[in-house]
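Re: the 404-residue chain
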Amino acid sequence: MKKFITKENLLHLVLFLSSINILIWFYKKYIIGSREVFWDLAVNYCAGKIYSIGNTPYGFLANNPISKCINEFAGLNEAFAYNYTIPLVKLFSLFSFINFSELKKIWFLIICICTFYIFKNTKILFGQNKNNVLFLAILFFSFGGVFFQSLLNGNIAIIGFTLISFSLISLYKNNIKNFALFVLIASLIKPHFFFYMLIACIYKGKVFFKTFILSSIILLLIYSMDFFFNKEIFLDFLNSMKTMKSDLWFFSFGGGLGIISINEQLPTKFLSILNIYFPSGPSMFSSLFWLFTTSIILIGTMYLFSIKKYWVLSKKKIFFAFSILIVTMCLPRVAFYELYIIVPTIFYLSTKFYNSSNNFLSKLGFIFLLIMFGVHDINAVFFLMSLIIFVLFFINFKKSYIKI
């Protein structure tokens, strides 16, 4: 009996129970319930239809040009606005003649392909010794099934993160050009995906700076083309970016994860304990605080580990995973459907801690994995990210060497 009751079996049990719970939720909501899959796809589909007839797809609430279309095809209200890039709406305009139900079938195929490559690429990086079924279950059902739920909502981010998974494979194999190319293409879907270029700045150091500058110029030129040839829609696109930082957007969709999001909400929750009212939401202070904090974190990390080479841990994959975590943590906001890469990264580092010969670190890794498999809260992602980064910093600057 004692041989059966092990830490590893307990972790597998927690993951199994969480998986069953999520699948029951899916059955109730989507199989016998009234929820429709891929509802977020309607936003891109309708934006493409509007753009195909020469109109701007950008606008919010009363000025939302796609409101009738998204209500018809997905039952969404006018708060669901198109806020993605002009290259993406041009792509979706090619599908404007297709019925939405047919597009959903095509999208299902795309999701299957993307999921396969994200699974394949992240397993090469972070789960080589894991059973395929177990690793897939970890991807799908960790943190309350954020990966699985992201597939259901149909957000375009999955294509971007498929490209980013290829970019990470390229970077780990020292193919810097392919890494930059994949991130550049992903940035044409969502501009903030370019932030992932900083992973190579940390991981490769000064060697990558020239490529980073060149990639920045290329992306700027691509976006500038729409400013010169499609100025009105480009300005609408910029206004949609501004809308995403407004109170209206914050109270409609929440702040997501990230340093700026925490700063928008933490003072309100803290002061409420003292019965002091302080409004939550976007502010200039939150943005400046994020800029100041992330600048210190990123520049400090690059200086310490990439330039001065203070990284003492022997395995380069740990530093590679650390680079992914620290860049993701510094993103201003991270939505729940943008965690495709971070879930396997956290799993890899938590497993490394769990398998450590250091007793304290092993116990810590076990707790991290328990949280990952058992806690159904998206905030647990940022919590574990921060803790793992802190632990890795601590290990590197501890005088007595700790082996992972």
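The first helix runs from residue 7 to 31.
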